């Protein structure tokens, strides 16, 4: 069985302008590889709804199984990642988003401000993570717990899920 594919989309105007490094995207790439995913793409775009949406569309067209965004999930005027993601989601997974917030809550009460979405589109899982390194690490815990099971369900497997 080959490793499931993944793509990473970092939404950050400042990182895309070279003001600072995309640390969250790097942490996410390493974490996904450690979890057994084959990272097919890692892109950096500004906080722009059309550009984020376009990258999600590309990943879906390529049949990427796990599409993870980092950044743009807060409440500032430029945070538009959930809005860029919503049109692509066929089945919302609110429990997955809540698990990410719950996993972060003990470390920072600000985790409750993330508006990230999780859901499926065809045979793909789409997940919005916060842009902070800590938020990405917390999200990786939830990905480790749920993503392979969700992907097996999308493949029509029974409810026992894959052996982890």
Classified by CATH, the class of one domain is: Alpha Beta
**What structural class is derived from the secondary structure elements?**
alpha/beta
Mean pLDDT over the residues: 94
Which bin fits the share of residues in helices?
Answer: 40-55%
Corresponding CATH superfamily of one domain: MoaB/Mog-like domain
At CATH level 3, the topology of one domain is Molybdenum Cofactor Biosythetic Enzyme, Chain A
Rg over C-alpha atoms, rounded to the nearest angstrom: 14 Å
Q: What gross morphology would you assign?
A: globular
**Annotation field: number of helices:** 6
How much strand content do the residues show?
A: 15-25%
Main β-sheet description: 6 strands, mixed
Number of strands: 6
**Cα-to-Cα separation, first versus last residue:** 14 Å
CATH architecture of one domain: 3-Layer(aba) Sandwich
What is the assembly state of the chains in this entry?
single chain
- Strands across the major sheet, in which order? 2-1-3-6-5-4
Describe this entry's structure for a reader.
- Helix 5 runs antiparallel to helix 6.
- The mean pLDDT is 94.
- The chain has six helices and six strands, in the order βααβαβαβαββα.
- The chain has helices at 13-16, 23-34, 49-61, 81-85, 94-105, 133-154; strands spanning 5-11, 38-45, 66-70, 91-92, 118-121, 124-129.
- The two termini are 14 Å apart.
- Among the domains are: 1-65, MoaB/Mog-like domain (Molybdenum Cofactor Biosythetic Enzyme, Chain A, 3-Layer(aba) Sandwich), CATH 3.40.980; 89-122, no CATH class.
- The protein is α/β, with parallel strands linked by helices.
- It has a six-stranded mixed sheet, with helices on both faces.
- The relative contact order is 0.18.
- The radius of gyration is 14 Å and the shape is globular.
